Recover the amino acids of this structure.
């Protein structure tokens, strides 16, 4: 009997361990012969309770528990009395059976977060009109107006500030630009304001031109209100033999003109001063040696361009071998074309090859070059035949001032303007009477004396030059 009771106690102990008693819990089973008897019902109840609380265990654990229960039940059927009942606490510990694989829990993958970014898109800039589109959209009056660069006071307003008279003149004549002189320039702030006002008043931005050669012809440098570098003369620069100094002239002048709002400098002088009795050119030229002058002109053009300044070679086909002044009277040069090509043309060729944007014509007569007997500014043979055809210049041709007596005495504002355009000139500079000159060209186009094609040719060149330098 004693052996049987010991066997029952051992089975109960094994059962309790399999039911998952934790290390922190202690179950006491008494196997005394006289006081402990465990009934089949109590054991079954305990096993059932434990089984219910461990339903999540694996199949292998359930099988082991059932086997143990059967053994215990069979053994305890021989016990007749029990005075103490031991309640086995349900296990809270998960036991992994060594012989069974645990099925992995299904994992739910959250969908990726979608981040919505709100971007404010700036409206696309309007496509810039091409020169042809601008040209085709212009009225006849606007096209004719582009052919004129005038003194600002000729617009009908103030000479020093943009007032209603200037604005009305721009609206009426649609001029292509203005040219400033000493009487228009007072101080840096004044000239900036004046130029800005004129530009704001014009639908097509203007050429703002000035004669700033350096030396005695310098409207800004010779004005007391401006602290800019001054140059003694172009002759003094040429005498150094150092072409870099000519570059510095263009670079320096181009830079300070740009700060005040100018975009065209009517410089450099490309004349060769071969006549000691010359009263109009003199030290404005780089010298009397055509090859040296050519080198200086080329460097000066490059200097102007380094600062984004439009420059103009003057005075074609050469004003250096004269004794008279075209400002005051008619002037004649008796050289042949071959003689001019060996001297006067060298600086012009050099400047054109360097990319000069404009060439200004002189009002000089050349009876041994032309058959029409006209001053160069009005001669088709000189402008279209020689300058454009033979020398290959495709830029903008501008006349010297129409206010000069060399033209006014014989031709007047109306006739001079029409004849210049017919000869191949693109810009008529400073007629004394803007209204007369403008209406003469307008009527010449309407009558067919100046063809629409000829008009468009010049306006196209003007617009292309403005586009090249960012003016439009």
């Amino acid at each position: 009997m004693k052996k049987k009771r010991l066997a029952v106690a051992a089975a109960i102990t094994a059962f309790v361990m399999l039911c998952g008693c934790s290390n922190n819990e202690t179950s006491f089973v008494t196997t005394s012969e006289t006081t402990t008897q465990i009934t089949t019902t109590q054991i079954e109840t305990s096993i059932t309770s434990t089984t219910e609380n461990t339903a999540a265990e694996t199949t292998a654990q359930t099988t082991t528990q059932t086997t143990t229960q059967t053994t215990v039940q069979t053994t305890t059927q021989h016990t007749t009395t029990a005075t103490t009942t031991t309640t086995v606490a349900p296990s809270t510990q998960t036991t992994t059976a060594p012989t069974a694989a645990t099925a992995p829990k299904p994992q739910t993958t959250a969908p990726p977060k979608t981040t919505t970014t709100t971007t404010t898109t700036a409206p696309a800039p309007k496509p810039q009109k091409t020169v042809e589109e601008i040209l085709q959209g212009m009225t006849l009056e606007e096209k004719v107006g582009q052919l004129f660069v005038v003194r600002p006071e000729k617009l009908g307003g103030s000479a020093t500030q943009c007032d209603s008279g200037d604005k009305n003149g721009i609206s009426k004549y649609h001029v292509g630009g203005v040219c400033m002189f000493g009487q228009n320039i007072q101080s840096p702030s004044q000239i900036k304001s004046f130029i800005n006002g004129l530009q704001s008043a014009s639908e097509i931005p203007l050429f703002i031109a000035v004669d700033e050669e350096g030396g005695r012809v310098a409207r800004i440098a010779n004005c007391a209100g401006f602290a800019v570098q001054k140059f003694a003369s172009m002759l003094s620069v040429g005498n150094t033999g150092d072409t870099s100094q000519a570059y510095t002239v263009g670079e320096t002048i181009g830079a300070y003109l740009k700060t005040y709002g100018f975009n065209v400098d009517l410089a450099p002088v490309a004349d060769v001063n071969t006549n000691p009795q010359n009263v109009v050119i003199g030290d404005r030229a780089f010298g009397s040696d055509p090859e040296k002058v050519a080198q200086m002109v080329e460097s000066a053009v490059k200097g102007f361009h380094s600062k984004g300044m439009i420059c103009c070679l003057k005075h074609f086909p050469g004003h250096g071998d004269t004794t008279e002044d075209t400002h005051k009277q008619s002037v004649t040069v008796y050289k042949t074309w071959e003689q001019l090509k060996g001297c006067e043309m060298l600086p012009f060729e050099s400047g054109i090859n360097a990319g000069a944007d404009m060439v200004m014509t002189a009002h000089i007569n050349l009876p041994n070059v032309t058959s029409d007997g006209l001053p160069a500014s009005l001669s088709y043979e000189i402008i279209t035949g020689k300058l454009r055809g033979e020398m290959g210049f495709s830029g903008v041709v501008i006349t010297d001032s129409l206010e000069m007596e060399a033209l006014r005495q014989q031709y007047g504002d109306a006739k001079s303007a029409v004849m210049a355009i017919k000869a191949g000139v693109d810009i008529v500079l400073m007629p004394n009477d803007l209204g007369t000159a403008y209406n003469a060209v307008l009527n010449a186009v309407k009558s067919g004396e100046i063809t629409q094609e000829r008009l468009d040719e010049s306006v196209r060149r003007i617009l292309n030059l403005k586009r090249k330098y960012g003016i439009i």
Observations:
- Residues 329 and 406 are 5 Å apart (CA to CA).
- Confidence is low (pLDDT under 50) at residues 6-110, 113-118.
